[in-house]
Amino acid sequence: MPIGSLNLKRKATELYNDPKHAKIIQWGKLISITGSAQILVQALALVSGILIIRLLPTKEYAFYTLVNTMLGAMGLLADSGVGDGVLSQGGKVWQDSAKLGAVIATGLDLRKKFAIASLLFVLPVLVYMLLHHGASITMTFILSLCLIPSFLVALSSSILEMPPKLHQDILPLQKNQIGLNIGRLALVSLTLFLFPFAYIAISAASLPQIWANLRLRKISAVYARTDQVSDPEIRTEIMKIVRRTVPGAIYFCFSSQITTWLISIFGSTDNLAQVGALGRLAVILNVFTAIFTTLVIPRFARLVNDKRLLLYHFLQIQFCLIILSLSIISIVIIFPHQVLSILGRNYAMLSKEVIIVVIGSCLAMMAGITYNILLSRAWVIHPAIMIGVNITTQVILMLSLNLTKMQSVLWFSVVNSLVTLVLLQLFYFYNIKKQTVESANNGIEIKAD
Q1: pLDDT digit string (tens) for 297-340?
Q2: Which residues neighbour 262 within 8 Å (Cβ) at sequence distance 6 or greater?
Q3: 3-class secondary structure for the chain?
Q4: Is this structure's pTM higher than 0.70?
Q5: What pLDDT, in 10s, does the model give residues 218-256?
Q6: Longest dimension (CA), the chain
Q7: What whole-number distance in Å separates Cα of residue 403 and Cα of residue 398?
Q8: What does the alpha-carbon distance between residue 420 and residue 434 come to, in Å, rounded to a whole number?
């Protein structure tokens, strides 16, 4: 073999064995596996969503949008910080299957109890909104009935995913999600062509979740023992987070979907369908959200309390999110008509609106990931601060904007998401500074890796 080839091979071996480069290679593999699977998952979800948009009449799609909005609100209320408490406690005992099993059992027990209150709180609001937008009493009853199983089957999935996520066993989760979305696409395709009704679309989307949950329990059981019961001490620790999170959860179950609420109140049924359709385009952002929540946040939860390490990784995450968001927004600005062609001719005139929606969605994605980062360290911003700042912002915007116009409502959402993001970032830096002060007072020396 020529000397040049031997030198090249030796350098390649040294590069591969170098710890820094090995870490880059490892992350590259993880991101490529997770990213490719999530691209497939979200592509299937996008195709299902586009089929629903194209096959449902505008009024039926408006009903579908309302029900999905309520499902999101109920999910937030049923969680109320339980999932974040489970992640925070699970990150401390992730190598002990018995203790991790107790954390999961406690989280599932708490979520079931919150689910009942959530259902009683949100269902009357859905009934009122459906009747307000022209649904008959019979259709309102059927849609409300379809909402309940869709909600119940989605309750346990995020908690059951915690053990494999903490152990970074990602592949089984990805396979399960792919199977789930193939099932949804198949049912949507088979049913909506014959029965283009909102309640059929909701049922077809939720039934495969039952099968996925059964598989998810088997995947979770590898790392967390299923024979464990709810633990009072773990419950107490989770409830510390829940008590500070519940007011925010009640507020955010509505504010997170504020665009839909405002359009429902001030706009027409057609406007509601348009906002729902544009929101479907933002599903591509779920690919990146899934990568962060699957790979980054569980690792962040496992980090030691090292000020420099926590600050470095946080800034690294924020920089990646900014670059990602700017890239997506730029593509939509350059090709708005091509993007809208996915939705069909009923939505082709929304070239300005789609840009505003994508900007707001990117900001909401960044705020959501930042919020999960904070909760992974059990850092919960006081609800009075979060709610107070957001309500003040919303009141100012309501007085400044003409909310009967669709673009004004969309800009309302953009500014609201931006304020939330900045507030969460400032709170993170406050906790880093507070940790430094506490460490100094306790005589602890902090060293970076």
Answers
A1: 877 877 777 788 888 888 988 998 999 899 989 988 888 888 77
A2: 403, 409, 412
A3: CCHHHHHHHHHHHHHHHCHHHHHHHHHHHHHHHHHHHHHHHHHHHHHHHHHHHHHCCHHHHHHHHHHHHHHHHHHHHHHCCHHHHHHHHHHHHCCCHHHHHHHHHHHHHHHHHHHHHHHHHHHHHHHHHHHHCCCCHHHHHHHHHHHHHHHHHCCCHHHHCHHHHHCCCHHHHHHHHHHHHHHHHHHHHHHHCCCCCHHHHHHHHHHHHHHHHHHHHHHHHCCCCCCCCCCHHHHHHHHHHHHHHHHHHHHHHHHCCHHHHHHHHHCCHHHHHHHHHHHHHHHHHHHHHHHHHHHHHHHHHHCCCCHHHHHHHHHHHHHHHHHHHHHHHHHHHHCHHHHHCCCCHHHCCCHHHHHHHHHHHHHHHHHHHHHHHHHHCCCCCCHHHHHHHHHHHHHHHHHHCCCCCHHHHHHHHHHHHHHHHHHHHHHHHHHHHHHHHHHHHCCCCCCCC
A4: no
A5: 888 888 887 788 888 888 888 887 877 777 667 666 666
A6: 83
A7: 7
A8: 21
For 133-148, letters b (16+ CB in 10 Å) and e give bebeeebbebbbebbe
- Alpha-carbon distance 352 to 388, whole Å? 31
For residue 222, report the phi and psi dihedrals to the nearest 5 degrees. Answer: -65, -30
CB of 410 closer than 8 Å to CB of 262 = no
- Report domain extents, the chain: 26-436
C-alpha to C-alpha distance for 67 and 126, rounded to whole angstroms: 7
Query: CA torsion 316→319→325→326, rounded to 10°?
Result: -150
Q: Which residues of 19-38 are buried (b: 16+ CB within 10 A; e: fewer)?
A: eeeeeeeeeeebeeebbebb
pLDDT digits (tens, 9 = 90+) for 175-194: 888 888 888 888 888 888 77
Distance CA 417, CA 401 (A): 16
- Residue 1, judged by CB atoms within 10 A of its CB (0-12, 13-18, 19+), counts as exposed
Amino acid at 93: V
